[in-house]
Structure formats: structure tokens, C-alpha cells
Structure prediction request, 335 residues.
Amino acid sequence: MNSDSIKISMQSQSIITIIPLQTAKLEAPCISLEIINILEWLKKTGKKSLIFYSRRGNARAWICADCGHYEKCPHCDIAFAYHTTPNKCLICHQCNNIAPFPVVCPHCHGSKINPVWVWIQQIEENLNKVFWENTKILRIDSDTKEKTEVLYRKVATSDIILTTHFWSTLIHPDIGAVIWLSFELNLSLPSYHIEEDIYNEISYFKKQHLPLYIQTYTPDHPLLREIMDGNIKSFLWYLSGERRDFLYPPFAELATIRVHDEQKKKVADIMGKLINKIGILKKKSTFFAFDTEIREKYGGEWQQKIILKDTDLSYIIQELQVEIVRNRSVTLEWN
Ligand SMILES: [Zn+2]
Ligand SMILES: [Zn+2]
Prediction:
């Protein structure tokens, strides 16, 4: 894309432009020549760019570098996370289902299956190499601790805002375009409502009439099609099919019980009791899964969680209510 075609697409308010990554010329990992041109054009016209890139240091998406395919947990329909220890494997962060690490891509049979995704810090470094002169890049990720007002002031004095967050509050009047470096990375975040979050975020930018550039390996993804068409009804229809098939709200109830404490043993004791009780109470139709290990959380706490799914969970939650209310180490999320 040369700067003329960018100009035209901006003037004609063609709000969303898809940049297919298979055919794009990459200047650095995840940074295509098209994106560089857009950033340069915005800079020239005195506008800021807002770039989303969801790979934090600890996010471990597994995506085929040839076709953008990623594996989903067959029980939960959310993306598997990639783990290297103790063995290379894919783990569902919802139900702990473990799948073998693919030898070739299950979709395109390609062999570029080792994660090649870079961290946001590397994206920042690479952008700095390209825009070495008079371009201020502001990176906002989980390391950023400033309050929104402080950040907003920093946004005001930056040219490129690079962020891991879906953060519509960062919208400054001088932002000229929003860029997603990898649609798949966002899509493969392990959350059952990720597609809805993406849809909402994009709808927000569309309402603001901000041009949106999306780099993707899957330009024909049904979610992208729905987004391009802007048909909220058909999107909800698409979503509701998946939600129904995989027992998610509003078609079923989802309960997450988290047990957390500074003492690992206390977590193990409470978990043991809860697991026993649920094992006795649960119906055949109830999906029941729990973390096999106690994980260390930030702030010196240990945590282990239980997932329950069924069309009605009230019968089981009622029985567990005593443990949940009485115990400060147990929290319940139920919807
Ligand atoms: Zn593939
Ligand atoms: Zn799962």
C-alpha cells in the first residue's frame, strides 16, 4: 500500500482495512510494510497511532505461523495455552485439559508451529529502529502502573501508543488510526467472551469513525466478516451458536470457584473438601474441572480453581454456600 491509497481510504472513511499477513512484506516480526507506511503517513499529518498487540511476557498463545490456525479445547472452546515445562504441550486454562504439542499444523500441515511471536517489548524495539528520529513511542502493558490521568498526559505527548490492553479510554482526539498487529493473538486469548470483547472494541472505534487496520492470517474468519458487515444481529447469532454448543452463559451457567491463601496447605485442604463435596453432589450433566496444581500468584498467594458448567448450578452452589461465605479464602464468580 502506498501513501496515496492510504490517503484515499482515510478520506473515504473506509473504516476497516484488513491486511493479510501471508502476503504482507514484513519489515520485522508482526510489522508489515503497510503498517510502517500508515504510521509514517499519520506522523506526517500530525496524528497519533494506537497499536494493539496482546502478547505480554506471560501470555502463551500457540498459533501456526503459516496459516494462523490455533487449537481450541474441545470442552471449553477457548484457545489452548502453550507450555514448555515440564514438557512441550498445550493446556486449557479453563479445565486443564492437556493436548499434545502438534508435530505439524493440524490445519495446513505446515511445520512453522513453534511460537514465533515476539513480546510487546520487542515490537517497541523494532518500531524504534524504524522510526529512530523524533518519534515518541509509549508502551503500555501490565508493567505500567500509572493512573489513567497520568497515562492520558503521556498519550498526549507521544506519536505511537503501543498497548496490550483493550483500552478505549486511551482515545485521544489526535489519534488518527487504530492498528491491530495480530488479530489471531487477540482471538487466542483464553477467555470464553473474547470474541464479544473484540467485537465491542471494534464497534467502539467504528462509532468514533477511526480508521482501523487489522493484520491477520485469517482474513476470512467469520468473526472478521461479521465485524466488516457490522451486523450485530448476525454476530450475536454466530456467537450464540458457540455459546449454546459449549454451555456458556446465557445458555448455561458458569461458576468459577477460586481458593487462595498465603499458605499452600490451606489451599490444598479447602480444595480437597470442595472437590469431595462437588463429586458427591454433581449431576451427570454438570461439567466439573479443577486445576491439578496449586499455582503461585502475585503477592505471595497460592491459588487453585474449580470450574462448573450446567444449565442450572443453583442446586450445587446452595450446598457450597456455607464454605464460600464462611471462608475468606474462597471466592465465587457465578453467571
Ligand atoms: Zn497452519
Ligand atoms: Zn477446556
